[in-house]
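Researcher: Please predict.
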Amino acid sequence: MGTTFAGVLAHEDRIALSYLSSRPDVSGQRVGTIGLSGGGSRAALMAATAKHLSATVIVGMMSTYPSLLNRHVETHSWMFFPPGLSRFADWPDVAASRAPTPLLVQYDRDDALFPQDGMEAAHDRIAGHYRRAGAAEAYQGQFYEGPHKFDLEMQESAFAWLQTQLT
């Protein structure tokens, strides 16, 4: 991604993953990541660029670019619009780029940051990537009622899913 803030953060996240994987109290073979909102973009970028990541959870951060253009650009930081990314891919493509590696995306139906049609389009696009990879079951999209959040119900589901993927 060149020298961008998103690229620098992705590099630093891979360094953190490498350190974590090297620790004797961590099973370096089974490491996952989870991120909410801007952390979700970091989780997506790490999933796309870290070969030894075993599972990823993206929370409250998934849509397609076209659905954002008319009314949702100003609600996002630089993290959601890395320079040049849209010439090559959209966020659903980034998130699914390592299919069949397990991926869970949690969507908030009433999230003011992302339009529902964009979330649904992203879900369909990710599911399509996983089907074409012969691993439809490795992707799970979960839709929750409510605004931008990672509430207890979502946390319990995400952590249970990660535990299943990493054990």
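Model: The longest strand covers residues 103-108.
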